[in-house]
Design brief:
The structure holds two protein chains of two kinds. By secondary structure, chain A is of the alpha+beta class. Chain A has a single domain, classed as OB fold (Dihydrolipoamide Acetyltransferase, E2P), CATH 2.40.50.100. Chain A is 20% helix and 33% strand. Chain A has four helices and nine strands; from the N terminus they run βββαβββββααβα. In chain A, the strands form two sheets. A six-stranded antiparallel beta sheet of chain A has the order 1-2-3-9-8-5. In chain A, strands 4-6-7 form a three-stranded antiparallel beta sheet. The longest helix of chain A is centred in the last third of the chain and has 11 residues. Chain B is an alpha+beta fold. Chain B folds into two domains: 230 residues, Gyrase A, domain 2, CATH 3.30.1360; 82 residues, Aminomethyltransferase beta-barrel domains (Elongation Factor Tu (Ef-tu), domain 3). In chain B, strand 16 and strand 17 form a beta hairpin. In chain B, helix 2 packs across helix 8 and helix 5 packs across helix 7. The termini of chain B are far apart. The chains are: A alpha+beta, B alpha+beta. The interface between A and B is medium-sized, with 13 and 17 residues.
C-alpha cells in the first residue's frame, strides 16, 4: 500500500494536503478505500459549512457499508469535488487524487498535529494485528 | 479459530479478501464485488458455499416426519430429484431456518440448511424425531460449489466430463447424481446454474478446473447483492425466529391449504397478518441499509435488507411494512439525519441478466 510522503493523515484514515493558497484538500486513504470496497456513493458537506476537528462531515458508502468521514481540522468547507457524484469509483481507483472537499483552516498550525506518512503507516500496520 | 472450507487455500491463491462470516473464514470478494456481480448476470461465476450444511434423512418415515417438520408440503415432491424450498417454523410460527429439500427416493431426502443456523437446526430436527423411523446424517464430508450465470451449466459440463448427459435434461429445481457429484439446478442469484455437492477432497480440483474453463470466483459480497436483486430472503435479516413467514414474503412457501398439520401451523392461523415484505427503490441519492426506518402512508416499517443494485445502478431494499401499502406508493426512509424518498415496487428487481424494474 502506498502512503504519499507529501500528505498529512488522521488516525481515522483521512488524508490532508496543504495547498499553496493556504487551503487544505481532504480525501480518504487508499487503506480506507480498500477496507470499504467498491464505492457507490459519496455524500459531501455543503459549501460554507463550518466544522470542528473530528466532526462527522461527509459519508462514503460502498456496496458493503457506510462510513463517516471526519473533519481533520477545524475550518470552513470552501469547495467539494462534484466529480465524485457520478463517479464514486474514482475513490477506489486512486484514493489520493480523488479528493472529497477543500477546507479553509481556522488555524493553520492545527495541521502540525496530524500524522506524517510514517506515523500513519505505523498506525495502519498496528491495526492489522 | 475460524472454520475453513476445503477451498480456503484456493481462495488465498486467487486473491480473495477473506472475512469472518458466521464463524467461517470466507471470501468477501476477489478484487471488485461489483465486477463479480456483473460477471454472474452476464456470463457466469462460481461460489464456495461449503459452509452450508448438507443433511441426509434416511428411513421409512422420512416423508411423514418432514410433513410435520416444515411449512411447505413435501407431498409436492413425487419425482426423484425434485427440490422444494421451505421454511422450518417453531411452535410460535417464527422461522427457525429456510432450507431446500431434495427428494431422491422414499427412504432418502437431502436438506441443505444455512451455515449460521446449522447446529441449531440439527438439534431442532433431532428433537422432533420421536416416533418416526428416520435418522439424520450431517454430511460434513461434502463440499458445495455453486456455478451461476447464463453460461454456468455449460462450464460445469466442460469441467466434469460426462456430466452433460446426466444433467442436460434437469429442469429448474431438480437434482441428479452423477458419480460422486450431486448436481442440482438451484441457486441463490436469480440466474440459471448448478449447485454441486461433492466429496471435500475433490472440491479444489473442481474449483480449479472450473477456473481453467473460464469461470470467475465470486465472493459472498456479490452473492448478497445478486440474491437481493433476485428478491430472495436472507435468513437472519429478512426473517428469523421472531418473524411470521406470512409477513416476510414467504406465504408462497407455507402450505395452509392441505389438512396436514405442521409445527407452527396453529400459531400462523391464529395471528392476523399485519405486514408484508415489499421492494423499495431509492429515488434520492444514497444507499438503503438494513434496519433503517420506513415511513409509509399506512404506518411505519423497517428495511430488512438494503444495498446498491449493480444491475439497476441505484439502491434497492426489502422492507417489512404495513400490508396496506401498495406498489407505486412513495415512502420515506430515515437515512442518518435525512429523510430520503423511495418507491414501493414489486420485486424481484433483476433476474436472468435483466432488470425487472
Amino acid at each position: 500500500m502506498s502512503v504519499p510522503e507529501n500528505l498529512k493523515y488522521t488516525a481515522t484514515h483521512e488524508w490532508v494536503k496543504l495547498e499553496s493558497d493556504g487551503t487544505v484538500t481532504v480525501g480518504i486513504t487508499d487503506h480506507a478505500q480498500s477496507l470499504l470496497g467498491d464505492m457507490v456513493y459519496v455524500e459531501n458537506p455543503e459549501i460554507g459549512r463550518k466544522v470542528s476537528q473530528g466532526e462527522e462531515c461527509a459519508v462514503v458508502e460502498s456496496v458493503k457499508a457506510a462510513s463517516d468521514v471526519y473533519a481533520p481540522i477545524s475550518g470552513e468547507i470552501v469547495e467539494i469535488n462534484g466529480d465524485l457524484d457520478g463517479s464514486p469509483e474514482k475513490v477506489n481507483e486512486d484514493a489520493f487524487s480523488a479528493w472529497m472537499f477543500r477546507m479553509k483552516p481556522d488555524n493553520a498550525a492545527d495541521l502540525d498535529a496530524l500524522l506524517g506518512a510514517a506515523a500513519y503507516q505505523a498506525a495502519v500496520d498496528s491495526e492489522a494485528h | 479459530m475460524l472454520k475453513k472450507t476445503p477451498l480456503y487455500q484456493a481462495h488465498k491463491d486467487m486473491g480473495a479478501k477473506l472475512v469472518d462470516f458466521g464463524g467461517w473464514e470466507m471470501p468477501l470478494h476477489y478484487g471488485s464485488q461489483i465486477e463479480e456481480h456483473h460477471k454472474v448476470r452476464r456470463n457466469c461465476g462460481m461460489f464456495d458455499v461449503s459452509h452450508m450444511q448438507v443433511l441426509d434423512f434416511k428411513g421409512k418415515d422420512v416423508r411423514s416426519y418432514l410433513r410435520h417438520l416444515v411449512a411447505n408440503n413435501v407431498d409436492k415432491l413425487q419425482t426423484s430429484g425434485k427440490a422444494l424450498y421451505s421454511a422450518m417454523l417453531n411452535p410460535d410460527g417464527g422461522v427457525v431456518d429456510d432450507l431446500i429439500i431434495y427428494y431422491m427416493d422414499e427412504s432418502w431426502f437431502r436438506i441443505v440448511v444455512n451455515a449460521g443456523t446449522a447446529e441449531k437446526d440439527l438439534a431442532w430436527m433431532q428433537s422432533r424425531l420421536d416416533g418416526f423411523s428416520a435418522e439424520i446424517t450431517p454430511r460434513t464430508d461434502l463440499a458445495m460449489i455453486a456455478v451461476q450465470g447464463p453460461n454456468g451449466r455449460a462450464k460445469v459440463w466442460q469441467a466434469i466430463p460426462g456430466s452433460e448427459a446426466a444433467t442436460q435434461g434437469l429442469k429448474a429445481f431438480y437434482a441428479a447424481e452423477f458419480g460422486p457429484y450431486f448436481i442440482a439446478r438451484t441457486g441463490y442469484t436469480g440466474e440459471d446454474g448448478f449447485e454441486i455437492m461433492l466429496p471435500s477432497e475433490m472440491a479444489e480440483g473442481l474449483w480449479r478446473g472450473l477456473h481453467e474453463a473460464g469461470v470467475a470466483p465470486i465472493g459472498l459480497g456479490a452473492r448478497d447483492t445478486l440474491r437481493l436483486e433476485a428478491g430472495m430472503n436472507l435468513y437472519g435479516q429478512d426473517m428469523d425466529e421472531t418473524v411470521n413467514p406470512l409477513e416476510a414474503g414467504l406465504a408462497w412457501t407455507v402450505d395452509l391449504q392441505s389438512e396436514r398439520d405442521f409445527v407452527g401451523k396453529a400459531a400462523l392461523l391464529s395471528k392476523p397478518v399485519k405486514f408484508q415484505l415489499a421492494g423499495l427503490l431509492l429515488l434520492d441519492r444514497g444507499v438503503l441499509r438494513g434496519h433503517q426506518k420506513v415511513s409509509t402512508p399506512h404506518g411505519e416499517g423497517e428495511i430488512t435488507s438494503g444495498s446498491f443494485s449493480p444491475t439497476l445502478g441505484q439502491s434497492i431494499a426489502l422492507a417489512r411494512i404495513p400490508k396496506e401499502a401498495a406498489a407505486g406508493d412513495e415512502v420515506q426512509v430515515f437515512v442518518r439525519d435525512k429523510l430520503l424518498r423511495a418507491k414501493l415496487v414489486k420485486y424481484p428487481f433483476a433476474r436472468n441478466g435483466k432488470p425487472l424494474i
